[in-house]
Amino acid sequence: MTQSSLLNATRDLNDILSQETTLLIEGRLSEIADLNAEKTEAVRAFENALSAADGVGVTAIERREVDATLALARENLQRLSVMRNGLNSLASRLSNLDSGTKVGAYSATGHKLSFDRGTNTLAKKI
Predict the structure, then answer these.
(1) Which terminus of the chain is more exposed, N or C, with fewer CB under 10 A?
(2) How far apart, in whole angstroms, are the C-alpha atoms of residue 17 and residue 38?
(3) CA 99 – CA 50 distance, rounded (Å)
């Protein structure tokens, strides 16, 4: 592969990573999954071009493009990690929603009632 193929592969990958960035910021996870096959192919082409250019060397322009693409990939990885942590936290909170949750009612002794006991002890007084 020639050096220009490294530049082309880098720009192709950068375009896909930019699309991924937009989707991550907008929270469109299903579309990110749809982009995976295209991204995998672009990464493969990028790695092949980089390996071929290794023996020949890279120009300053190519180096800047590669560095920018790698920085974008790291940023997307961080965004995806934050999103995953947020979803895990949400799932955990939702699974614990009914356990130990207190309702806006109190027992005769002044303690907040648990959600599961709230309906059993709350009676409408007339």
Answers:
(1) C
(2) 10
(3) 54
pLDDT tens string 49-100: 988 887 677 888 999 999 999 999 999 999 999 999 999 999 888 877 766 5
Predicted model pTM: 0.70
DSSP the chain: --HHHHHHHHHHHHHHHHHHHHHHHHT-HHHHHHHHHHHHHHHHHHHHHHHHHHTT---HHHHHHHHHHHHHHHHHHHHHHHHHHHHHHHHHHHHTTTSSPEEEEE-TTSPEEEHHHHHHH-----
* Sign of torsion over alpha carbons 68, 57, 7, 81: negative
Give dist(CA 12, CA 39) in Å, integer: 9
